[in-house]
Amino acid sequence: MKRFAVSAAALGFAFWLISALLNLPATLIDLRPLLAEAIPKSGVAHPVTAVLLNTRGYDTLLEIAVLLVALIGVLIAVPPGNPALSERPATADDAMVPALARLVAPLAVFFAIYVLWAGAHRPGGAFQAAAILAAALVLLHLAGLTAAWSAPTLRLRIGLIAGFLIFLAIAAAPLLGGMLLQYPPALVGTLILVIESGLTISLALVLAGLFLLLADRGGVR
Amino acid sequence: MIEHLTHLALPLLILLPLTSAALAFALGPGRGASLVIASSALQLLLALLLAATIGSAGPSHHAAGGWGAPLGIDLVADGLAAAMLLLTQGVALALFVFARGYFHQDSQDADHWAPAGRYFWPLASFLVAGMNALYLSEDIFNLYVTLELVGLAAVGLVASGGGATQTAAALRYLFAAILGSGAYLLGVALLYGSYGSVSIAALTPAIAASAPAVTTVALVAALLMVTGLLIKSALFPFHFWLPPAHGGSPAPVSALLSALVVKASIYLVLRLWLGPLQPLLAPFAWLPAILGASAILWGSWQAIRAERLKLLVAYSTVAQLGYLFIALPLAAASTTGVAPVAIVTLQAVAHGLAKAAMFAAAGIILHATGRDRVSDVAGIAERLPLTLFTFALAGVSLMGLPPSGGFLAKWLLIDLALAQGQWWLVAVIIAGGLLAAVYIFRVLRQAFLNLPEAEIEAEHQKARVVPRSAEWAAFALAASSILLGIFGGVPLLQLVGGSV
Questions:
Q1: Within the 139-158 window of chain B, which residues sit less than 8 Å (CB to CB) from chain A?
Q2: Do B26 and A158 touch (CB under 8 A)?
Q3: How confident is the model over A19-39, as a mean pLDDT?
Q4: Which of A28-37, A85-94, B418-427 has the lowest mean pLDDT?
Q5: Which end of chain A has less neighbouring CB within 10 Å, N or C?
């Protein structure tokens, strides 16, 4: 009975929400013309990338920190030297799977680089490229070609934070004469590409870590 | 030089802890601890500089990316934000010194850290970065990101205690935090849909202009945002997640969470309620006040009944947070006298200092006795006099005895309630102080009980060493909660009152 009442209330709220969102009045403030004006100065042609890395780049900086915190949370959940955690590669049952993974992984790297590059003028960018790379890492593990991760080594830890540190450095550098994240106009396109390249590597490791640190503990695979 | 530094203080207060957090993660706990402590000392200096500048020259602005709101994100520090930043950096620095001793104590080997301390430094530094960003943000979506940073780092810190009970408490905290920030985000989306901006500076006039005919969507948005924040603030009856999370964590974590983290979402409730959402939420001002009054009575009662020492301190937090909400309707109605927001801030700062000291002292006592029941603190007065003194000083501020900061805040609050004829609030505030005295003296009475000579010997035999630096860091926090009432109160009230 209680469950029924709660579901009914949630369903009613959802319906109200959808109908309210469909009937929103025109807003007093419209950001679209402002953004359209800003794009030529933003160093990229795609509005989403312009918002994520330029006008609201500060949000993105903090979001990378949130992802790192999530990864540390996973590390806490997996104590080092946990006997349940084996470093052996998982064995695939079928010879086709590793063969296919060997073929797909290099292609995934190429595709990730393309998606990263494309972010400047069409949908794409660091997050998407990182997700593709991370998927390739997970695939290699599932195909039995690479081991799951235990406690991260120093080299892996540096890899995890490198992209964030590059972003922080580029965000802080303009403070010498201006505002946080105020890219110099001449370099804006290059700097955004540098930030996105660093983020692609580090975010790929973070996203893969979320899976590979928990892999082989039974139930995940 | 000083002027340029002040201009940099806003972004640096966010960039410094972010950088030290990332580096502390790579370097590991040993060097990571030194780095985080050095960074927070620098942050404290910056916060002092910022408060001094704002006191004389007014609010400080910084447009991230150089775009300016509403397209970009603005950072703004007024007196209220500066006071919260000062509290955060000061308490964090003292607690980091405490934590270094606390996590390091059992080992002979300098590189050996208790498991709970392994990821403490990056998480705690990310936590401080998130809170600083929250106090400085002027953008309701950016505030959501800072809330996530604070919430996830806090959940990670609770989970780092290890063990099934801790993991369960962390999970419950995670669900509460996600429910809270989810409701807040839904509210932000609806407000953006209704008004077309997420900048507070742009929203405030837009909402005020629409006030005569408020749409249901805007009203629901405001209620969702505030309810989400109240869940995160553990206001009665949303306090269910707080006692297990705060009461079971390692002492430095409990202290950080109780002294600082809950204040961040309460700050947002006040800032939004008395700022842009005021026209929408005005009819509801009494609701948080009634819940706050219930929190004072219920939390104190649970603290009196608590069997475990840290659970007692955690329930005391539930009660003390209530004081921060009962001023809300008074603030909406007040026109003269000391600004109510300044009084609330004084209470938040006094409680932050006292509660950090009390959790740290409780941690030292638990570590020395190895047991966590209130009845086990017997004989502590002889073995840990400095720590017991710390606990008692913190208790003085929580009870609201003169000359502590807690006394000044509660006295001004009573004054304000009397001026507006709210007698029942006066009764609640006085009752809360008396109930606090009951649970504090419950501990002190036990501590002064004399153990038989033989038992004292036995206790001394198995006593574990607590580093002096940890004891003194806790004492510094308790002493500043008292000194706040003597020296700090008036400047703080002026700093906050002048700006809101």
A1: 141-142, 145-146, 148-149, 152-153, 155-156
A2: yes
A3: 86
A4: A85-94
A5: N
Phi and psi for B499 in degrees, rounded to 5? Answer: -110, -20
- Percent of chain B with pLDDT strictly greater than 70: 93
Nearest to B73 among A56, A161, A175 (CB): A56
CB contact residues (below 8 A), chain B span 19-58, against chain A: 19, 21-23, 25-26
Query: Is residue A141 assigned to a domain?
Result: yes
Number of domains chain A is built from: 1
Of B123, B195, B215, nearest to A28 by CB-CB distance is B195
Round to the nearest angstrom and report the end-to-end CA distance of chain B: 28
Q: What is the mean pLDDT of residues B426-441?
A: 95
For residue B335, is pLDDT > 80? Answer: no
Interface of A with B in 137-176 (CB under 8 A): 154, 157-158, 160-161, 164-165, 168, 171-172, 174-175
Q: Which residue in A62, A63, A176 has the most chain B C-beta atoms within 10 A of its own C-beta, making it the best mutation to test that interface?
A: A62
For B287-296, the pLDDT digits (tens) are: 999 999 999 9
- Which contacts of B267-272 are long-range, i.e. CB under 8 A and separated by 24 or more positions? B267/B80, B267/B84, B267/B134, B267/B135, B267/B348, B268/B134, B268/B143, B268/B147, B268/B229, B269/B226, B269/B229, B269/B230, B269/B233, B269/B325, B270/B324, B270/B328, B270/B331, B270/B341, B270/B344, B271/B80, B272/B140, B272/B225, B272/B226, B272/B229
State the complex-level ipTM.
Answer: 0.93
Q: Print the domain residue range for A175.
A: 32-212
Find the residue in B nearest to A81 (Cα): B115
Question: Among candidates B319, B174, B178, B165, which has minimal Cα distance to B250?
Answer: B165
Most confident by average pLDDT, A81-90, A176-185, B67-76, B309-318: B309-318
User: Does B201 contact A at CB distance below 8 Å?
Assistant: no
Domain residue limits, chain B:
285-500
